[in-house]
Amino acid sequence: MLSSNPVLTIIGLLAVLLAYGFWEFRTHQRNLRRIPIRIHVNGTRGKSSVTRLIAAGLRTGPRRTIAKTTGTTPRLILEDGSELPISRAGSPNIIEQLMVVREAQARGAEILVVECMAVQPHLQWIAEERMIQSTLGVITNARADHLDQMGPTVVNVAEALSNTIPHRSTVYTAEGPLLPVLQAKAALKHSAVVSCDSHTVTDEDLARFSYVEHKDNVALALAVCKHFGIERRAALDAMVRATPDSGALQAHRIHFFAKDLLFYNAFAANDRDSTIMIYHRLGLENRPDHPVLLIVNNRGDRLQRAEQFGELIATDLDAQHVFLVGDFTNATHDIALRRGFPADLMSDLGHCTVDELFEAVVDHVPHAATILGVGNIGGMGKDIVTFFKNRGEEWSRKPSASGSFSA
């Protein structure tokens, strides 16, 4: 029975909350101690892929390995490689990681590979120092994305990502230009940085994947697996067999009314540097004989990114036509025009339906064309991918060493 004194009632409720919080904290610490190896994967691009690759390689070893990805569709990847979807009542919240640790411990995990789901620097610190307390760190790369939260510069991004570097341990990275920033931050935590060389991964290695994977991602995952004594061939074989993230760069060929369309889902590569890298990797530049059409999808909470893609369209990509969909299309459109991109090569479709987008794209295809979806997987992104995927078949040709496609 509650006291009639409101002050005593409030004090009593606070005492209960404090007691529950203390119990929750102690329980979480106990769960962490029961998982001896915890790998926290952070970075701008490739976190989901690298998390999956590392977990796949480590599952070939003797330790029970569970992983969690946050990417396009959050998943708990179990010790046998099967997956469970993670349901969310509302917006993503880093408290979710507590549940992941609890579930992994209950399943007897000896290794937990977790993709960092925090963006803001202070939340990245909380995710590492209070929730994961990793025994090994991974930072894929640091690029100019989320500058409104981690910026204003890419150096600030690298510093923010460094919040997940573990204490007195090792962090693996494929980052190049900003490696000194990571090394300086790691030194403050008495940790070492291992820089992974993408040249250790061959074109033949990449050709084994059913989707377009990146050398940096594979090299990084192989280096982590080697750290735990996993032989390269066994690890790579397992990575090739593993289920890719739904945001992985995949291609689908569509034959529609005597027209051939090759659609690439690159929506997950939603920063400037990654988009340019993929564009060149696929050999799409300087192809006047073969139209390259861009679909740029913007999210409502990414105004800065919408503006960034306006400049990207005009200065870094040479697409024959660009279709703007989603939110803030006027911002992308106006900046592209101001940078000199021809108005007649751009269609601002805004909040159109996916069917309307598909019809607009087909109308601009003479006989054959490559369509590249960029910008963001959120909003219309998933629906666009599903639409194109359901109308075509998976395309398994890979870029050659020169970047062009071979049969």
Protein architecture, described:
The chain has 407 residues and is α/β, with parallel strands linked by helices. The chain has 2 domains: 27-241, Mur-like, catalytic domain (UDP-N-acetylmuramoyl-L-alanine:D-glutamate ligase, 3-Layer(aba) Sandwich); 250-394, Alpha-Beta Complex (Protein-Tyrosine Phosphatase, Chain A). The chain contains 15 helices and 15 strands. Strand 2 and strand 3 form a beta hairpin. Helix 2 runs parallel beside helix 9 (215-227), helix 9 packs across helix 10 and helix 12 (303-315) packs parallel to helix 13 (329-338). The radius of gyration is 23 Å and the shape is globular. Residues 397-407 have low confidence and may be disordered.
> What is the H-and-E element order?
HEHEEEHEHEHHEHEHHHEEHEHEHEHEHE
CATH topology of the largest domain: UDP-N-acetylmuramoyl-L-alanine:D-glutamate ligase
* Fourth CATH level, the homologous superfamily of the largest domain: Mur-like, catalytic domain
The pLDDT mean sits at 89
Largest sheet: 8 strands, mixed
Low-confidence runs (pLDDT<50, min 5 residues)? 397-407
Major sheet: arrangement of strands: 4-3-2-5-1-6-7-8
Task: Indicate how many domains the architecture comprises.
Answer: 2
Radius of gyration: 23 Å
Strand content: 15-25%
Number of helices: 15
Compute the separation of the termini in Å: 77 Å
Approximately how much helix is present in the residues? Answer: 40-55%
